[in-house]
Design brief:
152 residues, alpha/beta, Rossmann fold, 5-stranded parallel β-sheet, 16% strand, globular
Length: 152
């Protein structure tokens, strides 16, 4: 049996990690995070993507609907305003983990109300970049549990 890949999707400005507001996001780069995600997946296929374009993120969710086992998503600023992303994620039939590097609930009010949280299976916020491998391992555990239940 071929295992479906997990998707790790990243929204706007996350390509600037390591340089962008290091007092909030730290000095870790998106490339380092990607390497951690592949390592945390323990050989399971990971499709890791980052975009600054809302439509591209929606397209990757559509791809995951057809091909993916689960999604870890850091929608960044799209968390708080993207109805198209919310609608795409509503169609995803498997576990979704919403991830934020910072604790969005300790930040300004504008960051407190994520639309994505309404469809996420779980939310991880405030663990810094190390939240990514934690999210990947948790997602794989969720997916494996679903596979065991459905498989017998």
């Amino acid at each position: 049996m071929i295992m479906k890949p997990i998707y790790v999707l990243n929204g706007p400005n996350l390509n600037r990690l390591g340089k962008r507001e290091p007092e909030i996001y730290g000095s870790t780069t998106i490339a380092e995070i990607e390497a951690w995600c592949h390592e945390a997946a323990g050989g399971r296929a990971v499709r890791f993507h980052q975009t600054n374009a809302e439509h591209q993120l929606v397209d990757w969710v559509h791809e995951a609907i057809d091909e993916g086992a689960g999604i870890v998503i850091n929608p960044a600023g799209l968390s708080f305003r993207s109805i198209p992303l919310l609608d795409a994620l509503k169609m995803f039939p498997a576990p979704i983990i919403e991830l934020h590097i910072s604790n969005i609930h300790r930040r300004e009010e504008i960051y407190h109300h994520s639309l994505v949280s309404k469809v996420a299976t779980a939310v991880i916020a405030g663990l810094g970049p190390k939240g990514y491998p934690i999210a990947v391992r948790a997602l794989i555990d969720m997916v494996d549990k679903v596979d065991r239940v459905e498989g017998g």
